[in-house]
Specification:
This protein is of the alpha/beta class and 480 residues long. The strands form 5 sheets. Strands 1, 2, 3, 4 and 5 form a 5-stranded parallel sheet that branches. A 4-stranded mixed sheet has the order 10-15-16-14, covered by helices on one side. 22% of the residues are buried.
Length: 480
């Protein structure tokens, strides 16, 4: 007997505002029971779970976003997304319709196992009504939560994750003896003339991470320098996130119930220095938003961290974008003029010798791409057997069904392998690149050709350019 189970994904979300809903494990158990009854298998790799997170905005749910990204693969890795309730998918109707539409384009259904919907237009209407009630509930609950948090702020209590340098104990900020000295050092360094970027590099070099476990950036330092929590205050915006808009008239600043890390005199001195520095660098801040088009735009990478190099504020050189934020340890600044000449000369030498790196990424149906596609299909079949074996282990398949499925999968894999064509030799690929682009060098050296046109030409055959600041060398990687 040949049983071909359909593959489904499960999305699990439990928010902090509902204590009556099923636990994550209970949701998974019920979804698996439904899947078995309706001819689905739910592999562990396709169980996506966001715990203690609101459903109002998808971008705040990392596993939801991962599920959507996985679902967009061709062919679709699963044919349905199973939920305990539609409210687990979203509590914003507009967003729900958007993502369901996106899944539908890849022939993936969204099913609520506890809210069965009839097929046809009447069923779609019922589904929209359920989504509308879920969104109304979420909006109403959000208002109640916000009012409660505002009242807590007015009493000087903590309402968010602890600021760096503090822990939260019994809903109050308590000084962390390990991180509070770092806050004091940041203030001292700033008053002693160090800039935010220098301080960020210093702290990253010490191996210290932010509260969220990230590397420090210059803007992270700025946020600490401007945060009145360190002088015993609580800052709160009842109308939205405080972010870095320190002049928002809606922001509340009240006396907190916690011990200060920084004295008010030092804090005020830092604010005065900060204002002076902001005015001093205002012209660079204005230039920062200016867009420069240059020949190597989007191509040059940092050899240390792999990030892109972008144009500096003055428009004369390139720098690693992570270094400008304090996250990369090595400066990769180089003048545009010098790097342009290095790139053109390297391309000339590469075409002359025929020795250079090539990657295959063209979407044309060449023999190389066909082989890559077939390898991916073979891997899909291998994964399918793993899922069927998993179904056997949980009692969905019998040993005979497992054996028969294995034979069918082996037949499909052998048929796919028979389609593989011999791959072209790397030297043939290099020759193809040279023949197609040998006239480009003259155009790249022509001062009358615009930077936009030169950039478009380079993007036609250059995959990336790795710049090593230590040795002042580049590695040009070509593609077909």
């Amino acid at each position: 007997m040949n049983i071909e189970l359909k593959t489904a994904a499960a999305y699990i979300r439990v928010s902090t505002d509902n204590q009556t809903e099923l636990s994550p494990d209970s949701q998974i158990k019920e979804i698996r029971k439904y899947a078995k009854q309706h001819g689905y298998i739910v592999p562990n790799e396709y169980i996506f779970r966001d715990d203690g997170i609101s459903g109002r905005r998808a971008e705040k749910r990392p596993d939801f976003i991962r599920m959507i990204a996985t679902a967009k693969q061709k062919p679709a890795p699963f044919s349905a997304v199973l939920l305990w309730k539609f409210s687990r998918f979203a509590r914003n109707q507009e967003e729900s319709i958007f993502y369901k539409g996106m899944l539908a384009k890849n022939h993936i259904e969204v099913k609520s196992i506890s809210e069965p919907i009839l097929d046809g237009p009447f069923g779609s209407l019922i589904e929209r009504i359920i989504e509308w009630f879920d969104e109304f509930y979420s909006i109403n609950l959000s208002g109640e939560v916000k009012r409660g948090m505002t009242e807590r702020v007015e009493r000087g209590g903590a309402v968010s994750i602890p600021a760096f340098g503090y822990d939260i104990v019994d809903k109050k900020y308590v000084i962390n003896p390990d991180t509070a000295p770092i806050v004091r050092q940041i203030y001292a360094d700033y008053l002693n003339g160090m800039g935010a970027l220098q301080i960020a590099h210093k702290i990253n070099g010490m191996g210290i991470r932010t509260t969220r476990g990230n590397l420090w950036e210059n803007r992270t330092i700025d946020y600490i320098l401007r945060n009145p929590v360190y002088i015993g205050k609580i800052r709160w915006n009842p109308n939205g996130r405080t972010c870095r808009n320190y002049d928002d008239p809606n922001i509340m600043i009240v006396d907190g119930q916690h011990e200060p890390i920084i004295d008010e005199d030092s804090f005020n001195k830092v604010q005065a220095v900060y204002e002076v520095n902001q005015k001093k660098h205002a012209r660079y801040a204005h230039a920062k938003g200016k867009k420069y088009m240059y020949m190597l735009h989007g191509l040059v990478k940092c050899s240390d961290c792999g990030s892109s190099l972008s144009m500096s504020a003055r428009g004369q050189g390139l720098q690693c974008i992570r270094y400008t934020k304090g996250q990369c340890k090595v400066s990769h600044y180089i003048s545009v003029k010098k790097l342009n000449e290095m790139v053109i000369s390297t391309i000339e030498a590469s075409f002359r010798t025929g020795l250079f790196k090539v990657v295959v990424k063209n979407t044309q149906p060449t023999a190389e791409i066909t082989e890559i596609d077939i390898a991916a299909l073979i891997e899909k079949e291998v994964q399918k057997y793993a899922r069927i074996k998993e179904a056997f282990e949980v009692g969905i398949y019998t040993i005979d069904e497992l054996r028969e499925s294995r034979e069918l999968i082996d037949q499909r894999i052998n048929a796919l392998r028979a389609q593989v064509k011999p791959q072209h030799h790397a030297s043939a690929l290099r020759k193809k690149i040279i023949e197609k682009n040998k006239e480009a060098i003259q155009t790249l050296r022509d001062p009358s050709v615009s930077e936009e046109e030169k950039n478009e030409i380079l993007h036609g055959f250059v995959d990336s350019i790795i710049f090593d600041r230590t040795s002042t060398t580049i590695d040009v990687i070509f593609y077909v």
